Task: structure prediction
Amino acid sequence: VASFDLQAYQLERGKQIMQALDRYTPSADTPPVLLHQAMRYSLMGGGKRIRPLLCVAGAESVGGEAEAVFPMACALEMIHTFSLIHDDLPAIDNDDMRRGRATLHKAYDESTAILAGDALHALAFGTIADHQTGDPSRVLRCVALLAESAGTLGMVGGQVDDIYYERREYGYDILRSIHARKTGALINAAILSGAILCGATPEQEAALTHYGNEVGVAFQIVDDCLDVTGDTATLGKPAKSDLKLDKATYPKLFGLEKSEQMARQASKSALSALSDFGPSADPLRAFAHYIVERQT
Ligand code: IPE
Ligand code: IPE
Ligand code: MG
Ligand code: MG
Ligand code: MG
Result:
């Protein structure tokens, strides 16, 4: 992995993903212009593109081509962006900054932000239906995976409990479950869908599920830690947002040092799941390191 240049990979693949997102999203002059401008404001500005990049890396890990999964990769980013728009609303986290700019409800207004989120949710599934090629039964499995990871058993369910456990007592099982659902599920779906579309074997799927679950939880533990240690300018979103709302987080339950250690442990466990993969999984290996070292 030392020889693998993740930054170059993120730059090159990230550019291709941006171009694909642009193609799949109605142009800014399509009526209602306000809605399409708002969707593009959130979707096209900033963002690390981790989920689409993990989808591509999942595809490559089983010998597939990046181009073969771009619609699925973009659908993941659309769902993720919708989840961020709604997460920032006054009724949820009430944050004013995202991806280095005003949140959508601040740059536009609340009604537009709610509806742009709704529209990105629908656009995600439409993008797969309209553009994702390959074996139809594999595509259908990925649709089901995306729906489950975003829905009541995944992101939305996790967000509900994230809100419920503000200012409330909780233990490790609840905390891990919140993080696995609100963030881990979509990240896991990213890796697995890329691999499924490119013909992963059941053994590869099992290994990548292990990898995805560990990396997914590690990602949110680090997000919790950065809320405490990071600054708003570097993060591109308000630091101390979790403290303000007294959220259920790893640092609140375990302290910072232990939380960072748990994230590193999860990253190691993710790496161990890739032991049967060759160099084709180097992007995934590099991501497992990156996710716990990132400052943003
Ligand atoms: C932020 O996700 C929300 C979480 C689920 C932790 P990212 O850190 O991937 O945000 P962007 O897409 O880079 O803005
Ligand atoms: C986000 O968790 C989970 C989502 C499903 C959007 P956070 O609320 O911690 O994400 P940030 O810190 O606002 O990006
Ligand atoms: Mg939140
Ligand atoms: Mg938030
Ligand atoms: Mg956070």
Q: What stands out?
A: The mean pLDDT is 98. Residues 223, 227, 242 surround magnesium ion (ligand 5) (CB under 6 Å). Residues 202-229 form the longest helix (28 residues).
